[in-house]
Design goal:
The chain has four helices and 14 strands. It is globular. The strands form three sheets. Strands 1-2-3-4-5-6 form a six-stranded mixed sheet, with helices on one face. The chain has one domain: Metallo-beta-lactamase, Chain A, CATH 3.60.15.10. With 186 residues, the chain is an alpha/beta fold.
Length: 186
């Protein structure tokens, strides 16, 4: 089953935050919350979403600055690769997370950070800063760049071509577009 997704452009480094939810059960998660806005709250109310989790693609502040606020208000568990928050569930490579009737597969794609992960669902992938439209996330050296691009090739480019890639910054794109035209893979 494909998730419903709503993108929010935040004021923290122009990062993307996403609401992802099961269209049947209305169980949802917030992906990379750098802030929690009235607009987000309105969509949650209008769509009847029952928030169940926070998913973090990596530990940079422009993807997690609102975690404390969300935990305080909603008591949400966190799924992330890094253990920065009390009560946080470690999301490990290959693990399957359930969100209502949705399954999201965790894929480790280190390079941008050592704890970079993606959440893969049918027809959608939340990729954080591992991959952008026509770019990849910044790395500190050539070894990390190779690690990141290898992870993208192996774990994202093997997804169906029409899979929508939801990055941490910039517009959404697809596996077909990035695997054919992203200049970092030629």
């Amino acid at each position: 089953m494909k998730p419903k997704v709503k993108r929010f452009l935040t004021s923290v480094n122009a990062s993307n935050c996403y609401l992802c939810w099961c269209p049947q059960t209305r169980h949802g998660a917030i992906v990379d919350p750098s802030e929690f806005t009235d607009e987000m709250r309105s969509v949650i109310d209008e769509e009847g979403i029952s928030l169940k989790a926070i998913y973090l693609t990596h530990s940079h502040y422009d993807h997690n600055a609102a975690v404390g606020e969300l935990k305080s208000e909603f008591g949400l568990p966190i799924a992330a690769a890094a253990g920065e928050y009390p009560g946080e569930a470690r999301a490990s490579d290959g693990e399957i997370l359930s969100l209502g009737n949705l399954e999201l597969h965790v894929a480790a794609i280190p390079g941008h950070t050592g704890d970079s992960i993606a959440f893969l669902a049918e027809g959608a992938a939340f990729v954080g800063d591992a991959l952008f439209a026509a770019a990849v996330g910044g790395t500190t050296d050539r070894r990390h760049f190779e690690q990141e691009t290898s992870g993208v090739r192996e774990k994202l480019f093997d997804l169906p071509p029409g899979t929508i890639l939801y990055p941490g910054h910039g517009p959404a794109t697809t596996v077909a577009i990035e695997s054919a035209y992203n200049p970092f893979f030629f």
